[in-house]
Amino acid sequence: MTETWDSAGYIASSRYRLTVCEYLSEHGSGLPSRIATETDLAQPHVSRALSELRDQGIVELLVPESQQKGRLYGLTDLGELAYERVALDQRVDLTVVDADGFPEPELVSELQTTYSDSLRAIAWCEPSRAWVHFSSPSLYDEYDEETLKTVVSTLANEEPLDEPLGDLPAGGPEYIAVGLEKALVVRVPLNDDVKLLVSVKKAFDTTIEGLVDTCVQTTSAVSLDADD
Predict the structure, then answer these.
(1) pLDDT tens-place string over residues 141-198
(2) In this predicted model, what pLDDT tens digit does every residue of 212-228 receive, in sequence order?
(3) Which parts of the chain are coiled coil (predicted)?
(4) Domain 2-88 is found in CATH 2.170.150.20
(5) Would you list the domain boundaries of the chain?
(6) Parallel/antiparallel/unpaired status of strands 93-96 and 183-189
């Protein structure tokens, strides 16, 4: 399941990989030139996406390696499962907000203060809505709307990781970290309805457990203040 989740995140993090997988899912197989023509993508982008996906075991070549013309590609079994995971999660209502518009502004402030050099983005994910705050506008410019929506919803919605582990001897919530091309994303389930995604630089040099503790403690403190 984790392999499928990692592969889904890899597909979702590039609109070119996402489009290629969507085409292969719908058509069963495809030639790079035909995929490019029918998706309005430049062929170099399609060829690069196919190469990347093949390296990850998501796409396979369906003809002999020695065949130079008519190189037909299709999704592997892993690729089919991963793309299905992505396709199921493209329904979230997503809003990009500044710190004041984030559901927990105090969390934004705490993370920016503690991890300012590493923090890329924070997403607050509920069952059908998500709010995303980027640490700088230039990071937001890296994503088109559909890719951002797909990345967030895919990374937020893996059912076997939904339940906190508070009742187990280890204590604390269950979290998972997945490495994307430019970032490390840590997912923390805060309760049954809310999952937090924190994106940091891939060369994050602080313990993930410390990041998770900061998220949990800050949101818990805010909840206690609200109850008072």
Answers:
(1) 887 777 787 778 777 765 544 444 344 344 445 788 877 777 888 998 888 788 899 9
(2) 999 988 988 654 444 44
(3) none
(4) no
(5) 2-88, 93-227
(6) unpaired
